[in-house]
Amino acid sequence: MELYTKYLGLDLKSPLIAGSSNLTWSVDNLKAIEKAGAGAVVLKSLFEEEIYLEHSSEMKKMGPMGDNLEFLDYFDVDIRKENLQKYLKLISDAKKALTIPVIASINCVSSHEWIQFASKMESAGADALELNLFILPSDVTRNHQEVEDIYLDVIRKVTGTVRIPVSVKISPYFSDLARMITTLSLENNQGLVLFNRFYSPDIDVEEEKMKSARVLSAPHDYLIPLRWIGMLSSRVSCDLSASTGVHDWKTAVKLLLAGAKTVQLVSLLYDKGFSSISEINHQILSWMEGKRYRSLGDFRGKLALGSSVNPAEWERIQFMKTFGEYK
Q1: Which of 15, 206, 230, 315 sits a CA distance of 20 to 30 A from 299?
Q2: What domain count does the chain have?
């Protein structure tokens, strides 16, 4: 039996990928993740927003110098260059230390300058690139087509520039999600990651102030990617990677049965450490042995829409009799 799979055209020894987080910002961590049995790693994202925030913070410290436009142009380039150089060094160091694929990650909200950044990441040795895209639909003056056009603009410019595989990590927050996923799968990107996990604001009722909601995912959060992967894995023209809510081996197997090529882990690694990767690999193999499966291909997508499963099992949205039977 083996856990070998292909994702974005890359050879992976396991379908388990360490997703983008602070845990993948350290080469020592990356080596431990590989040793634990991960098939690939996605490096911590280079954030467009983070660069802008750093720029704004430094600008405030400059005072009157802010009127010198020539200096500001230099200052803006300098900050971007410093952030990018740190990231390129991480890619280079990771490639020297690891044998598994290293996937760089860009969190962007526009196509401004990211084409150049993507090209430099490719030159630094990244095996693939994950575009982490989300535009919060909070602007009431911008319609859905304008938002979708931003996604397509970023994807087309990046995939038209680099030769390494590109995957796109999106959110479930589209009014016509199925159409958007299939549309994106027809672009030049080789994969889609379903779905992003976001910062959520919360309110402290005692202090009467804003705070952050839970950062890590909950075990039931996998149900959203499970439904959409199950409904669309047989209809898309690229690989699907499952993300969010994977806390045990059974969830990983469910997502593979639904048609996912790979499964990304983050919160579990924070909760239980890198050894959980090895444990899940072992448990999947044990389950495969009991089912007499010799490879992931023997069961991947077995329960996806279009197989022998009743379509209503994936597409039903109301409980019908379920609550009547619930005790």
Answers
A1: 315
A2: 1
